[in-house]
Amino acid sequence: MKLTFHALAVLALLASPAASAVEYRTVLPAQSAIGFEFNQMGVSIKGGFKRFVAQLIFDPAKPEAARAQIDIDLASIDAGSSEADEESAGRLWFNSSVYPRAQFVSSQVRPLGNNRYEMRGKLMLKGRSREMAVPVTFKPGKTAATFEGAFVLKRLDFGIGEGMWADVATVANEVQVTFRITATGT
Amino acid sequence: MNTVLRYSPPAIVLHWLIALLIFVTFPLGVYMQDLPLSPDKLQLYSYHKWIGVTILLLASLRVMWRVTHTPPPLPDDMARWQRRASQAVHGLLYVLMLAIPLSGWLMSSAKGFQTVWFGVLPLPDLIGKDKALGDLLAGVHQALNFSLLALVFLHVGAALKHHFFERQPFLQRMGWGQKEL
After folding, report:
1. Is the ipTM above a cut-off of 0.90?
2. Cβ contact, residue pair B113, A44, below 8 Å
């Protein structure tokens, strides 16, 4: 009995650093997604970006050292309809001929417990940058882990939808952004 | 003394209410579809859809009323082919009053835009997002609408012809006037 307990304790000691030694750094694009949802005339519209490059380094044992960067190709938008996709590239929206990409660069990660973290960083969009705090949930898996979260972005903070589109009664200011990044430790 | 041959008041009210809404939303539908994307266009689409759902609701009530109430008889001396034609046109008008908003609702779902009545009451999406099906239903919606336009011309033309050329009191079947011939 005593022996068993000791054996378990030794095993646990051996196992725990080994388990947390995984440093997630290889993103699997096919299992990652960035989506958004907004309200238009009381109707919920879903969309997303098909092309983006996500880079991250995350060691569950040293979450404060984690870093992430996401670059989104704005031309890869699905805004709900082909008409909206075309419109979104225009000067009043993303002006994507001048600002083809959106970029998020992390600056600080704070553990909140239960595999939840707060990631602070800078979002650069349409020539403007803003500090953001994004909640991230870490879900370890057998071969890969996912990093998921959602936050509300106010489109007018970045001048997305200017001029006639600034009327938030037609297209709401709040855009719910969701992300799921899958990464392996190899 | 002649009795006034007239539909019941609920049928008359529903007839004119639906007619008014069709006269607003039909030209709106034709006008809005070629507009470049703008907040105005999104608003007009919403109004068009809200009116369409209202018509679907009123037309459902009207069909229920119609099947449970007998309409006033047609004049005895009316030719048989005219009775047949009248029945056919009225039947088709009832079908289109239901089928047109229904096709619009389905088209909206297929195009990925849920219908939310007056921005408050969401209608379920009976079919999923499917671009090809959405384009097909847009064609169906348009074809049904132009069929309705043709039938409305026929309907109004026949009523006016019976009333003014044949001096039959046809307009009072759907009117409020007390005048009898």
Report:
1. no
2. no
